[in-house]
Amino acid sequence: MAAPAVLRERRGNGMARMSTALDLTKTDGLKPLERAARHPLMLGLFIPLQQGAWSPSTWPRSTSWSFEYNAECTVRAEELGFDLVFGLAQWLGKGGYGGDMRFREHAIDPLLVTAALAPLTRNIILISTVHILYGWHPLHLAKFAASIDHMSHGRWGLNVVTGYKTSEYEMFGIVPIAHDLRYEMADFVAPKPVNGAVIMVNAASSGAGLDYAAKHSDLIFVTSPAGANLDRACEALPPHNAKIKAHARRHGREVKTIINPHVICRETEKEAHAQFRAIVEHQDPVAADNFYATFMGGDQQSWKAATRSDWVIGGNVHVVGSPEQVVDAFVRLHKAGCDGVQVNFYDYLSDLEFFGARVVPLMKQAGLRAG
Ligand SMILES: Cc1cc2nc3c(=O)[nH]c(=O)nc-3n(C[C@H](O)[C@H](O)[C@H](O)COP(=O)(O)O)c2cc1C
Q1: Other C-beta atoms within 10 Å of 115: how many?
Q2: Of 241, 267, 269, 266, residue with least CA distance to 255
Q3: I need a surface site. Which of 82, 130, 155, 184 has the fewest CB within 10 A?
Q4: Which pLDDT tens digit goes with each residue over 208-262?
Q5: Which of 300, 316, 341, 343 to probe ligand 1 with, by most ligand atoms within 8 A of CB?
Q6: Which atom from ligand 1 is nearest to the alpha carbon of 208?
Q7: Helices and strands (H and E) in the chain: how many
Q8: How many CA atoms lie within 13 A of 124 on its CB side?
Q9: How far is the CA of 271 from the centre of ligand 1 (A)?
């Protein structure tokens, strides 16, 4: 696939743009995460590094796992004022999660993608997931982390994951490690921030995981303890967010929490729900079964309340409706103690464009976004 013009232009001007980034950092004196946190609700994009992204459905869409597509999403998200992009990491065999669509069979690696995105962007935070216990030497990780930190001028974040799938450990020829021991090992193995600049991220839910996250993370991804239904999520999230923040404070630290809603937004509520139904009706049942079984089967505590039908849409809380309804949902998530939303879409580039045109301005009006 030929690189879109916007990317060719960015590549051509990469070095010039990076010096601008340095100047910007100097003028407001803020680190990238501090700049993002000036917004009452941080805004992130969960980029589609995996084939099929979040939804085991064959309903037509442009979404692609190619680097060019992900780069275009990232560049556009930055232009629309998003604070961060994030990529997940997974290790699947041939056929991915299976089904006719071979859900998530193909994927590109978030660490390499964020390195490549660094010179194409200048403000947006780039977070990659790394399974730190799959045979990495800590020095390799520390060196790579420091390198991307420098390449992005302090805009890189490391989402430390310890791996919850036996099948993944087996792919690396490693005997699966018991849940709590994994976090003890992570405590040892995680690279310490370079110049205080590497943004440390984690998505723990368990006691051992939160102990680790409270000590080391700046940003914690939360999952709804009550599944994807917005009303139930907004009831369950306040104590969950409060518990995480209190835990961090016991370690003398302030952390931000961020949740990943799957957003289906159209001009009217009716159109948004029609899109929701179309995705569900075109589900690949085998891929959906396997995707759901993965989250039910692992020893992790996140996602456990999500149902099989939640997983056909994917992501975390489902936010479906008109632009006004989406912003209303964000206001509720903010009131429930979430410091940010990191959105997933079904048809990324067109959904992102609509979101930028119709939702972002309303977020500003609602006081969720500064400036
Ligand atoms: C937003 C989000 C993104 C995640 N990304 C990944 C990932 O890319 N790879 C992975 O193996 N686990 C990922 N996880 C799962 C976490 O690594 C972790 O296993 C899970 O949240 C459970 O934590 P616990 O061990 O404390 O129960 C993610 C979780 C969340 C909420």
Answers
A1: 18
A2: 241
A3: 184
A4: 999 999 999 999 999 999 999 999 999 999 999 999 999 999 999 999 999 999 9
A5: 300
A6: 26
A7: 16, 10
A8: 31
A9: 32
